[in-house]
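# step 3/5: fold
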Amino acid sequence: MSSMSMPTPAPQRTSPIVWIAAVLLPLAIAWQVREFLRHPEVWPPCDYVEYWSAARLWMSGGNPYSPQEMWLLQQQAGTTTDHVVMLWNPPYVLPLLAWLAWFDPRVGQLLWLLMNLTVSLYCADRLWRHYAQTSKRRGAAWLLMLTFAPTVFLFYMGNWSSLLWLGLTGFLTLRTRQRPLLAGMLGALTAIKPHLFSLFAWVLLLEALAHRDGRRVCLGGILALGLLSGIVTAVSPNIWSQWRDLNRMPGSDILWTAEEVLHPTLGYGLRALVAWVAADHFWVQVLPCSLGLPLTTIYWWRRRPIWDWNVELPRLTFASLLLTPYGAWVYDYQVLLLMLLPAWHRVLSQPDPLIRVALGFVWLNANLGVIGRIGQPGAQQSPWLVLTIVVLVGLCWGVQRSLERAASTTTKTAAPARPAEPSSG
């Protein structure tokens, strides 16, 4: 008996449009890069110039905490501001910036953008898969990240808050996989801007006092920061005194200190209120954070038997940003995607499209309203833009909580009643 062979399906042909796009897209990108490099007035450097000039000075033996040396380099790099953009971060961040010193400022700016984009895409994808436990709809995570106003501000301004998000993402995924040492090492990236994560750091300390895994997390952070500090001290033994001297300098025509800048924080609002009634004191800005520490201790103590970093890390991050004394700019709020991605995963899992459409409408309008201010003087420190972002995040989180409660109630209602035990006798 002869066997019948199945016909081999013809191979699918790639559409000519795909081939044309594959050729034209790289050419278009190459042309845009060429125009960017030829015209320094296009997208002048903002925060990025701070990191490039600090790296160039440190690698050449200069002082990255000298306003005069930084100002000279930044003018050569094409800055359009009338003051120096200083590196206020602790010296242990310098090894993370060193690679920029090898590039022309314009080439480095493109590479810096590429770094921020890559890190942001990775964090969005990793967090979505972590919370959803699947790669389904991961494109939604990328879209949410790219349309979130703080992300757009981050790319435009050239800050490096994406590394803060990377630190939190790495901490969360590794801590929940019971790898506390590595979680602490990646979590140390939040020390790039330590003032933003005071409550998070405080809980890590409480955890270290409570159990062994908490101590291993802190050990990982100490090892990471110790290694970076050792490198920077070996290269520049005077770097710590230079950083100390910068923080003691008064403001000048080219140097704006933290006391002179408007901060879109709760602490600054309290300081302004006190200054209106009595006298102006910078230390007033620290009061909300100081109050947050004992409240966080009580919160942790009550929830420690059921402590879940998947739930608590987004909340701690949100509270830390709200109570930070200073320096929480619009782009720093990108880390709140820690709250937004699980919220949107819950929303997209609902069969009712009305919730998705309504929240999507609010999302687009709020973010477009904030993005529309990009490039305007002082936009990154506008309290109204920050308030818009905070309200949007709170709304998304509130919708998530409502959906979770509704699902929990439905599950309890639908659960079959336990049959009664038959009576004996």
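# step 4/5: annotate
The chain has one domain: 42-408.
# step 5/5: archive (pending)
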